């Protein structure tokens, strides 16, 4: 039996990139629908997304954050989907690489796939956030996951049914990875040629990574206390 596959895509002021991102998905026969949740954009993100026949676009009245937008889209996807993917709206044409995340779930009975990006083209931080995430997952699950920060993922529906809602904050991916592994689901990292906006070595980039580090440390502390 064919599996019904949905992609949930939060988007905020992505009018310059979302067209290419959706163009990268339109010829993937596996994908039945893309649910775009415009998170209160002030540009033409919603209008562009709505112009695609395979897209079901939703517009939030105000910016609520990525976690809220994911949960909003998930409640529609989970009604009829067997497989659900999360993708960012700024991937451009490299979004087509999601096919590499879907095939192991269809053909190898994998429960969750995580996109493993190539090395960043420009230097960002000093790797502290990535090390914290990797070491935290290893300590709490015994599994080595290089890409636990990656938000580009595909799930069997039953995995997402384990969560009442997707947690909010910068530590969401790490926390989900730990919970999924602890519940015994199989996780496969898949090397993809995806690219998206990278944070650089500037004040904005360091503030972003500082928030990531703080949120991930909180999540890991919570998980350790509940072991």
UniProtKB/TrEMBL annotation:
Which domain of life does the protein's organism represent?
Answer: Bacteria
Assigned EC number: 2.4.1.54
SUPFAM superfamilies found in the cross-reference section: Nucleotide-diphospho-sugar transferases
Domain named Glycosyltransferase 2-like: residues: 6-127
- A molecular function (GO) term: undecaprenyl-phosphate mannosyltransferase activity
Record keywords, A-Z? Glycosyltransferase, Transferase
Q: Which residues form a coiled coil?
A: none
Tell me which Pfam families the record gives.
Answer: Glycos_transf_2
Q: Which Gene3D superfamilies match?
A: Spore Coat Polysaccharide Biosynthesis Protein SpsA, Chain A
For the keyword Transferase, the answer is yes
Cross-referenced PANTHER family, in alphabetical order? RFBJ PROTEIN, UNDECAPRENYL-PHOSPHATE 4-DEOXY-4-FORMAMIDO-L-ARABINOSE TRANSFERASE-RELATED
Q: What is this protein called?
A: Undecaprenyl-phosphate mannosyltransferase
Q: Which organism is it from?
A: Alkalithermobacter paradoxus
